[in-house]
């Protein structure tokens, strides 16, 4: 007995200092454990066994620019329209009614219109300005229109730009001339400046080279002159265009003649580098528009070949360049040869910067 006690004691001491010798508990991995596990198909609850629920309504979340996650209501409407068509066909089939294609077409059109006029959030979608008549244009449409063509204004009570030639108030003869010139659409500077010119407002137009600035000032000028009686003898002109160089003056003349010939308006160019007598003769025969470089026009005025007492319309083409080239005194002298009341703006706020410069020097 004492021996057994001793053995037990020894075991306990060994266990304490050398660790126990108990066999390790075997751990079975779940993959091992369930390797041969099988279940009845009906026990599979991961999917609905009822076919009715096999294709549940699918959410179509929209992400990206202009969307927050949500449902595509337009797609749902399309699906609903298809279903409606199917049901109609089925009903017709059952009742033996004839196929009425018009009915389907009508449903199609109605649904297409509904899908187009509502966005994905079921909000009404506005049509683009190009699809609207002038009367339907909203402030927002005009803003988008101006943004589309990079048109911006500074000034008060600015008239709306014109969207097309037909919407301008140029008159049928000028519109015909524009069509014959092959100008299908107005350029942005023309869209913005022509309505201003036609409303007898002073305008400073800024646009890049080759953007159609010439027609933008020539057309309202022609429209203004078309309402006046033709000039007799040397009493003209009604309008003067000043340009810094001979070449530019000639380019403007070419552009002006395209429209002037249709209206019986006479255009004379008065530029340096050519015989002054020839130009004097043309001025004497009478003309409604003079296109000139400042120095040569001043010579003509001083020699009394030209008078500007009927001139109410002045264009300073490339005014900044004329100042850079030192033409300011000549331009000021030409403007002073016109009756001062002609150039006095109704509203002092609307005085052209250039004119102020010329008039004060
Ligand atoms: N609406 C239009 N449609 C088609 N062509 C046009 C239109 N307006 C002008 N043009 C043509 O575009 C060309 C350039 O026009 P224009 O000479 O008036 O430009 P500009 O802005 O005055 O250029 P610049 O700064 O060189 O004087 C011309 O040949 C003109 O006939």
UniProtKB/TrEMBL annotation:
<feature type="domain" description="Helicase ATP-binding">
    <location>
        <begin position="194"/>
        <end position="357"/>
    </location>
</feature>
<dbReference type="InterPro" id="IPR000629">
    <property type="entry name" value="RNA-helicase_DEAD-box_CS"/>
</dbReference>
<keyword id="KW-0547">Nucleotide-binding</keyword>
<protein>
    <recommendedName>
        <fullName>RNA helicase</fullName>
    </recommendedName>
</protein>
<dbReference type="InterPro" id="IPR014001">
    <property type="entry name" value="Helicase_ATP-bd"/>
</dbReference>
<feature type="short sequence motif" description="Q motif">
    <location>
        <begin position="163"/>
        <end position="191"/>
    </location>
</feature>
<dbReference type="InterPro" id="IPR027417">
    <property type="entry name" value="P-loop_NTPase"/>
</dbReference>
<dbReference type="InterPro" id="IPR057479">
    <property type="entry name" value="PRP28/DDX23-like_helical"/>
</dbReference>
<dbReference type="GO" id="GO:0003723">
    <property type="term" value="F:RNA binding"/>
</dbReference>
<keyword id="KW-0347">Helicase</keyword>
<dbReference type="Pfam" id="PF25430">
    <property type="entry name" value="DDX23"/>
</dbReference>
<dbReference type="GO" id="GO:0016787">
    <property type="term" value="F:hydrolase activity"/>
</dbReference>
<comment type="similarity">
    <text>Belongs to the DEAD box helicase family.</text>
</comment>
<keyword id="KW-0378">Hydrolase</keyword>
<feature type="domain" description="DEAD-box RNA helicase Q">
    <location>
        <begin position="163"/>
        <end position="191"/>
    </location>
</feature>
<dbReference type="InterPro" id="IPR014014">
    <property type="entry name" value="RNA_helicase_DEAD_Q_motif"/>
</dbReference>
<dbReference type="GO" id="GO:0006397">
    <property type="term" value="P:mRNA processing"/>
</dbReference>
<keyword id="KW-0067">ATP-binding</keyword>
<dbReference type="GO" id="GO:0003724">
    <property type="term" value="F:RNA helicase activity"/>
</dbReference>
<keyword id="KW-0694">RNA-binding</keyword>
<dbReference type="InterPro" id="IPR011545">
    <property type="entry name" value="DEAD/DEAH_box_helicase_dom"/>
</dbReference>
<keyword id="KW-0507">mRNA processing</keyword>
<dbReference type="GO" id="GO:0005524">
    <property type="term" value="F:ATP binding"/>
</dbReference>
<dbReference type="Pfam" id="PF00270">
    <property type="entry name" value="DEAD"/>
</dbReference>
């Amino acid at each position: 007995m004492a021996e057994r006690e001793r053995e037990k004691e020894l075991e306990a001491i060994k266990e304490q200092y050398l660790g126990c010798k108990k066999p390790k508990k075997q751990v079975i991995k779940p993959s091992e454990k369930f390797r041969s596990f099988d279940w009845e198909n009906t026990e599979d609850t991961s999917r609905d066994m009822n076919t009715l629920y096999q294709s549940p309504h699918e959410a179509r979340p929209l992400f990206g620019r202009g969307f927050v996650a949500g449902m595509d209501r337009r797609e749902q409407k399309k699906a609903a329209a298809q279903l409606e068509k199917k049901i109609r066909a089925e009903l017709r089939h059952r009742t033996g009614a004839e196929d009425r294609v018009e009915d389907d077409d009508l449903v199609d059109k109605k649904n297409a219109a509904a899908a187009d006029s509502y966005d994905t959030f079921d909000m009404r979608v506005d049509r683009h300005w190009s699809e609207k008549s002038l009367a339907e244009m909203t402030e927002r449409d005009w803003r988008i229109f101006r943004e589309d063509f990079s048109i911006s204004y500074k000034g008060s009570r600015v008239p709306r730009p014109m969207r097309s030639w037909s919407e301008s108030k140029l008159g049928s003869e000028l519109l015909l001339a524009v069509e014959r010139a092959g100008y299908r659409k107005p350029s942005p500077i023309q869209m913005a400046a022509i309505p201003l010119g036609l409303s007898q407002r002073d305008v400073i137009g800024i646009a890049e080279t080759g953007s159609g600035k010439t027609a933008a000032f020539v057309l309202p000028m022609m429209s203004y002159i078309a309402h006046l009686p033709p000039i007799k003898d040397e009493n003209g002109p009604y309008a003067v265009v000043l340009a810094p160089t001979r070449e530019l003056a000639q380019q403007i003349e070419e552009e002006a003649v395209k429209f002037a010939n249709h209206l019986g308006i006479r255009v004379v160019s008065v530029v340096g580098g050519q015989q002054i007598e020839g130009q004097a003769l043309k001025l004497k025969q009478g003309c409604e528009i003079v296109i000139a470089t400042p120095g040569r026009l001043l010579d003509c005025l001083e020699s009394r070949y030209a008078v500007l007492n009927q001139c109410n319309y002045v264009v300073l083409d490339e005014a900044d360049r004329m100042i850079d080239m030192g033409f300011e005194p000549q331009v000021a002298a030409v403007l002073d040869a016109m009756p001062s009341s002609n150039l006095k703006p109704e509203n002092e706020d609307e005085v052209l910067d250039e004119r102020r410069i010329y008039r004060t020097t």
